[in-house]
């Protein structure tokens, strides 16, 4: 079986299978040799005997097997036997066969090294002997492994490299054994182990070997050793072959150190002591400078790892964070816009890291290089990053409280609030666009300062940015801006005139002037329905602040919008009801102004296109003449006029329906008017009498029984419910019961 291992015809994979079968048998042979030793056979004689085997390869396998028993017998010092064995393995120089025989030697010797606390320490040898043995075996194994590289045709070379890569663990196990030796303390690692290993790594000049062994060093040795030997380890990086994936090696080193720093606060002074940030930053700079062909994604990946390291080790050093971002900007300066999706993804990771660490966008806003990195993103990714920033603010409920920070923030998210060069707003997905703009609208509510002067500056800053958003964006963002300003108005209510000594006094009047301009800008978009709604909201706020002229101006603005901009009949109906509803709640107007506005509202109501809409708007206007407050208007006569006018319009609507369709339609409008009569009757309007209500009920019944009436279950149910209500009020007793007794059913 051992003679079969002499073959050169098997692939590394198949040779490995053969080796494993031989290994199992050799373990049995080792047990046999042990038993022979117990029965009086001299191990020394066995050790000499196997050296007479005819072929070198079987001889070495047998020699290693007996050598293992020889060391255990302690008939010779372990260091002498190990030295003898490692020297004899020089006899096999075929890369594949030599690699496996040395792997066998490493395997059978790992528990027989003269280590601290080991039974073989002392006269049998020292820790230094164990280290020397492992290092010598490692060096020779790496040389054999490197010699396996094939320089043939492309397809064959690729296959050979793949097979060679599969054998890497045979070499790496030596480093693992070194890391397990108890006697290898920091001093020995620093003075002996690391320099010797790195010397072999650099000198082998093979990219596969260099990448794997650097990764092995980082993975198998303790974190504190890496920290104390950082300069030595990083010094080897620029000496590696240009084709080595050094970014991954350095990234893994920084990730390990970052995790080490995060594991305990007690280790952080060590990082400061060795100036880890400065060394890592310099090493990355040298690598990027040396490897001029390194793609952008590689460099950015390194900066992401360095930033992660910085945020974990030096979270309080924002200057370090800004330095990393600045270095990234420098690298990207020759690339106007990234077109590599992997590089873009890494830039997003770089920008997201400070947000995740500090949970506070305000901290990120102080980093001067943060917006400069964002400028290198394409339009699509810029928006993604802007959304990440907004989501961070929402998640952490962060309040941005100064105009300067708002300015920086809106520069960061400019991709969402205005059209960027080269982007077409029409190409956007409608749902995505709405989500983006709704996020900006929510963000505006997170911008707040208790100081009125600063809050006014914030509002002006937001206005400057949002007004550049174009017709598609303004309907989303302007309402938030308006309500943010109205919140400030309510905060200032009661303050009148200029505040002495202030450069830009924040007074309600000044804010209302600003709001007038904002709404005018919105109405030119055009978005008249929204502008009208916001005008009415502002009028209500002016009413609460007792500013009659301001409120009148906003109502005038609303009526102008209604007259000149709103042409759609459905939109007109909605607008009239909004105007009437708002005007009804106003208590700031004097008699003249209120009459003017009321007259306008009733006039527009009667001029709506469809008769049913006219009817409903006119009976809604009746509430303008009866406000159920202590000092509210109570003009019963004009209420009755409105209701009678609504009845005439309802009657006209029935007749028109009869002419057009041959049937008068349902009596719903009459029932609705009946309910208004009942409302004012209850509220004590003397003009609304029981007889009038009784007459209206009779009219409804007559209409229902006419030949032209259209049966309608909904209006029948509505009427039945109204009649039950009247009956209920009659039976309730008391003053209200007496009033309702006058209605004869």
UniProtKB/TrEMBL annotation:
Q: What does this protein do?
A: Plays a role in vesicular protein sorting.
InterPro entries to which the protein is assigned, alphabetical: Vps35, Vps35_C
Q: Give the keywords, sorted.
A: Cytoplasm, Endosome, Golgi apparatus, Membrane, Protein transport, Transport
Taken from the record, one Pfam family name reads Vps35
Annotated membrane topology? Peripheral membrane protein
Family from the record = Belongs to the VPS35 family.
Domain of life the protein comes from? Eukaryota
Q: Does the keyword Membrane apply?
A: yes
* Gene Ontology terms describing biological process: intracellular protein transport; retrograde transport, endosome to Golgi
Q: Does the keyword Protein transport apply?
A: yes
UniProt lineage: Eukaryota, Viridiplantae, Streptophyta, Embryophyta, Tracheophyta
**Where is the protein found, in the record's own terms?**
Cytoplasm; Endosome membrane; Golgi apparatus, trans-Golgi network membrane; Prevacuolar compartment membrane
Which Gene Ontology terms of cellular component type are present?
cytosol; endosome membrane; Golgi apparatus; late endosome; retromer, cargo-selective complex
Name of the featured protein: Vacuolar protein sorting-associated protein 35
Q: Which organism is it from?
A: Herrania umbratica
